[in-house]
Design goal:
The protein is α/β, with parallel strands linked by helices. The protein has eleven helices and eight strands. Pathway: Amino-acid biosynthesis; L-proline biosynthesis; L-proline from L-glutamate 5-semialdehyde: step 1/1.
Length: 270
Amino acid sequence: MTSPNVLLIGCGKMGGALAQGWMAAQNPPKLMVLDRKLQQAPGDSPIVRAASDIPADFQPDIIVLAVKPAGADAMLATLRDALGERLHKSALLSVMAGKTCDHLAQACGWDDMAVIRTMPNTPSSVGAGTTGLYASPHVSEAQKQIAITLMKQVGTVVPVSRETDLRSIIAIAGSAPAYIFFLTELLEKTGVELGLTAEQSRELARSMMYGAGKMLHDLPEDASTLRKNVTSPNGTTAAALAVFMDENNWPRTVKLAAQAAVRRSEELDN
């Protein structure tokens, strides 16, 4: 496949993570970045400071909207004024929560605007992202495949047929790196409290997280089987898991946390 023309709007935490992943891929896109503060883009991609600075001969295949939701409508209005029909010919790929496909299409000025919503996470910057993807009915199959290919360059893609399913993806994958980082943070802290040095505790916790994640990724067994395989009856792991698995601890907490993420996503969408 020919490398697509990609216009990335915003190169902050998420936009920057995606750009880093794309530029490290074997077949990176032809990337242009619109960001008024960025000094250097990944892969030395060209940077423009305003929509009016986008070259007249640059026709984006995909426009990736990676700005804060509060500024999305104003940015799309500016793009519409600067690009005109070139915007309509592109597919808009959003990485934001809280802006539905219909809302984004209206902000672009065309009800039939091709809009794709994705929910990537920050491990995309190291090629290990997890992305939920929904394509509105106005997205062509070719546009959808370009978007899927782009997001696969930075990790795993899970397409969904209902836009509302993205709320569940946020809870299970989009926000979840923070859950893992928090658990690692707690393990590091507890290691120090148990007598290890900060350096030892940090190395142990991070190496363990990497190893467990690699097993989940590389091995065919499901998570339940892997857990049982490492848990000897009446052993140390069993003693620790008995605390975690009490119905008022992790089983309840993880469910409540996911439900809280879904509720907040619904509030943002509405």
